[in-house]
Design goal:
Layout lengths: L1 H9 L12 H11 L2 H4 L10 E4 L2 E8 L11 E2 L5 E5 L7 E5 L5 E6 L15 E2 L5 E5 L9 E5 L5 E6 L15 E2 L5 E5 L9 E5 L5 E6 L8 E2 L6 E2 L5 E5 L1 E2 L15 E5 L5 E6 L16 E2 L5 E5 L9 E5 L5 E6 L14 E5 L5 E6 L14 E2 L5 E5 L9 E6 L1
Antiparallel strand pairs: 1-2, 2-29, 3-4, 4-5, 5-6, 7-8, 8-9, 9-10, 11-12, 12-13, 13-14, 15-18, 16-17, 17-19, 19-20, 21-22, 22-23, 23-24, 25-26, 27-28, 28-29
Helix pairs in contact: 1-2
């Protein structure tokens, strides 16, 4: 079961599951820690399953049917309604709304049989009018993915269909950020001038610009951005790439570097803020999630590998480019084939980790892949890719 889920989660990206790179273990680790960016640093069946760990109470507020598999985080409105995406069933995926009492409504269903895009693996952004914006990794006119809008009444519009190399990029694996003028920004895992991915902008009218193309390998640039972006008040964008950088080789022969953290200006000028070295100095390798930025401009994120026992890290990157590993994950756990079914954890600025909840893979869910969202009372909301009543994943609330 887990190997099939791992393959599905990697979504046919051969670049991420190269032979000899411990794909099953890598996916277990990713499932266990990728929720850091939501909590670190401080006809529905009405099933409520409460479990506690370290004085936290987890409630399963919705169980998806088999094959639904939500992989992304949630958006919370002022009335407590939650909005998100599922990657199934049947590979199409949905955009859904969930009321505070657990009633789900599918706003839009994608299909691999048309040109409207399918595979919405990332989360959504919501504007003041209630419109939802996101990406699909596949589909569209050229089958390289789309940027879409779904209205509150469930009408979907493809704002842009990616065409791949050598133009606008392809296969967006991450969500979007939106500026005050309604422009959307994101990354594509592939495509662009060197086929190594892009940073792109889409206007409200649907005009797309690849404002930066990563690569080529000989330049020491990053390659294949897998996570989303953050936007500062000046319009600068910050993100990370899964591979690339100056330390070619990284953990495995033939791998194109351990990844970088980058900044892209509004005019498309890229600055490489940090290149990971992996085993060369235990600083982490292969960042897959997004970043956080504090009031002083420090950046925080996670790596899939590297650290003390090569199971990933939480890192801090200061303004001058100094990187600090705040925490190295150690693995361990029971159930879900021995690696554990994932956790929600808290991390203090000095790197002290507290596990708030350990998933069992049962009614409470298993394998949380996405960031978390807070409400005004400090409750946390998120998704799990599997588990629940029908083993299709869950939406949960974690109450302090």
């Amino acid at each position: 079961m887990i190997s099939e889920k791992a393959i599905g989660t990697l979504r046919q990206q051969a670049e991420i599951t190269k032979a000899g790179r411990k794909p099953a273990l890598r996916m277990m680790v990713r499932m266990a820690f990728q929720c850091v960016l939501g909590v670190a640093l401080l006809g529905a069946l009405p099933v409520t399953a409460a479990h506690t760990a370290q004085a936290q109470t987890l409630t399963t507020i919705y169980s998806f049917t088999y094959g639904s598999r939500p992989e992304a985080g949630l958006v919370l409105d002022a009335n407590g309604n939650l909005f998100g995406t599922t990657s199934g069933p049947d590979g199409g995926g949905t955009v859904f709304e969930l009321t505070p009492d657990g009633v789900e409504e599918v706003l839009y269903s994608f299909s691999s049989k048309n040109k409207g895009g399918y595979g919405p693996y990332a989360g959504l952004v919501r504007d003041a009018n209630g419109n939802l914006f996101g990406t699909t990794e596949f589909g569209g006119v050229h089958n390289h993915g789309t940027v879409f809008q779904v209205t509150p009444t469930g009408t979907e519009t493809v704002l842009h269909a990616f065409s791949g190399y050598p133009y606008d990029g392809g296969r967006p694996a991450a969500g979007l950020v939106q500026d005050g003028q309604g422009n959307l920004y994101g990354t594509t895992f592939q495509g662009g001038a060197a086929r190594k991915g892009t940073v792109f902008k889409v206007t409200p009218a649907g005009a797309e610009t690849a404002i930066y193309s990563f690569g080529p390998k000989s330049s020491g640039d990053g390659e294949n951005p897998f996570g989303g972006l953050i936007l500062d008040a000046e319009g600068n964008l910050y993100g990370s790439t899964f591979e690339g950088g100056r330390f070619h080789g990284c953990h495995y022969p033939g791998v194109a570097g351990c990844g970088i953290v980058f900044e892209v200006s509004p005019t498309g000028q890229e600055t490489r803020l940090y290149a990971f070295a992996g085993e060369k100095n235990n600083d982490g390798a292969e960042p897959v999630g997004g970043l956080l930025r504090d009031a002083q401009g420090n950046l925080y994120g996670t790596t899939l590998e590297g650290g003390t026992v090569d199971l990933g890290t939480v890192f801090k990157l200061a303004l001058g480019g100094t990187e600090t590993v705040l925490y190295s994950f150690m693995g361990g756990g029971s159930g879900c084939q021995g690696y554990g079914c994932g956790t929600v954890f808290k991390m203090t600025p000095d790197g002290t980790e507290t596990v708030l909840y350990r998933f069992t893979g049962g009614v409470d869910g298993g394998y949380p892949l996405a960031p978390l969202v807070f409400d005004g009372q400090g409750n946390l909301y998120g998704t799990t890719m599997s588990g629940g009543v029908y083993d299709g994943g869950t939406v949960f609330e974690l109450t302090p």
